Amino acid sequence: MGAIFLESWAKPLLVAHALVAVALAGSVGHLGFECWKVVRGRVRNAWLLRVHARIGFVLYVLQFAIGAAAYPIYRVRVRHEYFDASLPWATNLFDIKEMYAAFGLAAFAAIFAMSFALKAEDPDQRPLSVGFASLGLLVTGIVFFATASGFLLVSYRSI
Amino acid sequence: MKIGAPAHLDDLSARAIYAASCAGLLVFSLMFVLLATIEGLSVPWYDPLGRVWHIASTKPTPVSMDWFGRVAISLAFAAVASLAVFFATRRRALSASLLRAASIWALAMTLIGLFLYAWTLANRVILPPGA
User: Fold this and answer.
1) Which of A45, B25, B112, B119 is in the most buried spot, having the most CB atoms within 10 Å?
2) Within 10 Å of residue B108's Cβ, how many Cβ atoms?
3) Are A80 and A9 within 8 A, CB to CB?
4) Strand partners of residue B45
5) SS3 call for A159
6) ipTM given for this complex
7) Nearest-angstrom CA–CA distance, A94 and A63
8) pLDDT at position B130 over 90
9) CB pair distance less than 8 Å for B106 and A110
10) What distance in Å separates the CA atoms of residue A141 and residue A122, rounded to the nearest whole number?
């Protein structure tokens, strides 16, 4: 067992983090596309909107949990032992990613709950649908940023 | 229940859930910003090498992490706010304009938080360990 919590599981955690990231990016890609259509004034497929608001949230929570489990290992083995000394910009980029991930969790939880309340097909609910879709686009942006920056950082040093 | 099943809630409950969702996000973003900007505030820190928690206003060890504590506190406040708003509004007919305003406030507070963190962290100077 390593000195750090779950350190002996570092590589499986990293691979799981990458695999879930790909699935999550696919789900929020669909969510973002449907949300973009809603913001532009047309509900293209309300079923897909709901499906990806719900599946995407489950994937996001899973991804968040795996990331949180691996975070202490990164903090010592990657940031403290390498990034802080050699690549300070990478430390800052990672911290931005983690802060954005936390905001994304709250935003996705809101979308998830809204998906059980909103009838996007109903024209009378258009103002509420636009609020939902705006949050959906925000979450999509956060996930794509986190995924891209995560893959970039791993290319320099991983746990 | 099918994963993509449409909402079957009555209008009052649906609007209360929408309002509670906005309140939760608003409070989370507000707390997450406040916990990072109020000076001298004690928060939980996790020391990954010692595997212990500290309550402190400054970093107890060079590798201590305050992210877990700040996320947990913000989520707790957001959960309380969501429940309070849900139970306070589930028997009142909230107007669409009020709900729309709530979503705009939640989105705006989140965008402010994202900007503040990005600005602060992008301009942070990292000193090498031992410097």
Assistant:
1) B25
2) 12
3) no
4) B54
5) coil
6) 0.95
7) 15
8) no
9) yes
10) 26
Q: Look up the pTM and report it.
A: 0.96
Torsion angle in degrees (nearest 10) through CA of A124, B26, B68, B117: 110
- Report chain B's terminal Cα–Cα distance, integer Å: 58
Q: Which two tokens stand for residue B67?
A: 């992210």
Tokens of B77: 């406040």
Beta strand B43-47 with B52-56: parallel, antiparallel or unpaired? Answer: antiparallel
Contact residues, chain A, for B121 at CB < 8 Å: 92, 95-96, 99
On whether the CB atoms of residues A4 and A148 are closer than 8 A, the answer is: no
Q: What is the pLDDT of residues A121-156, one digit of tens each?
A: 888 889 899 999 999 999 999 999 999 999 999 999
3-class SS at A102? helix
Q: How many CB atoms lie within 10 A of CB B72?
A: 12
Residues with Cβ within 8 Å of B38's Cβ and at least 6 positions away in sequence, in order, are none
The answer to whether B1 faces chain A, any CB pair under 8 Å, is no
| Chain B touched by A137 (CB under 8 Å) | no
Contact B26, B107 (CB under 8 A): no
Please tell me the predicted confidence (pLDDT) of residue A1. 45
CA angle A64, A103, A32 (to 5 degrees): 85
Strand partners, B46: B53, B65
CA B5 to the chain's CA centroid = 28
Instruction: For residue A63, give both structure tokens.
Output: 């991804």
The pLDDT score that the predictor gives to residue A2 is 55
